[in-house]
Amino acid sequence: MRTRRAGQSALLLLDAIAVLKEQAIDYAVIGAMAASVHGAVRASADADALISVTASRLARLRSIFKKMGFGTELRRGDVDDPIPAMLLLSDSHGNRVDLLGGLKGFDPQAFSRTLNVPFSGDTLRIIGREDFIAMKCFAGGPQHIADAHVALRSAEEPVDLDLLRRVTRRFGRAAADVLEHVLAR
Question: How far apart (Å, rounded) are the C-alpha atoms in residues 61 and 89?
Answer without folding.
Answer: 11
